[in-house]
């Protein structure tokens, strides 16, 4: 099922028109219409997030199970990062704090190994961006995707 079909289903559930959803999501006129009719095949993550908020659902609810709006790192890039011993302790600590807060806010209790697995994936993705900041949108998405 494509994103347009999922949005259409959620629109019906919410009892909203396309125009009302565009307005509620703060999107330009025809933004959602273009997704529904296939003119916009890969909407930005910001657009998807705005739609999800307006429809009171999550981003993964609108995406196919394996569809990833983030360009994650490849195994080769991950290997390169580990080989170069690039390490940002502050970024990793911030990653742990964000993962911990997300799990608490979602009332989720995971084993240490799984929590650290999430933290490692989020840290590696954030390290690749070279912004020295944890990508909180990616963190939320990756945890939601796995649950």
Would you write up a description of this structure?
There is one protein chain. The chain has nine helices and no strands. With 147 residues, the protein is an all-alpha fold. The protein folds into two domains: 3-62, Orthogonal Bundle (434 Repressor (Amino-terminal Domain)); 75-146. The model has no long low-confidence stretch (mean pLDDT 81).
- Discrete helix count: 9
Order of helices and strands: HHHHHHHHH
Helical residue percent? 55-70%
Mean pLDDT: 81
Q: How much of the residues is beta strand, in percent?
A: under 5%
Structural Rg: 17 Å
Q: Structural class of the secondary elements?
A: mainly alpha
Query: What oligomeric assembly is this protein in?
Result: single chain
Count of discrete domains: 2
How many strands, what sense, and barrel or not for the largest sheet?
none
Low-confidence stretches: none
Count every beta strand, where a strand is a DSSP E run of 2 or more residues.
0
Shape: elongated
End-to-end Cα distance, whole Å, is 20 Å
Quick recap:
By secondary structure, this protein is mostly helical. 65% of the residues lie in helices and 0% in strands.
Write the layout of secondary structure elements.
Blueprint: H1 3-14, H2 18-25, H3 31-36, H4 45-54, H5 59-62, H6 75-83, H7 89-105, H8 112-129, H9 136-146
Helix pairs in contact: 2-4, 7-8, 7-9, 8-9
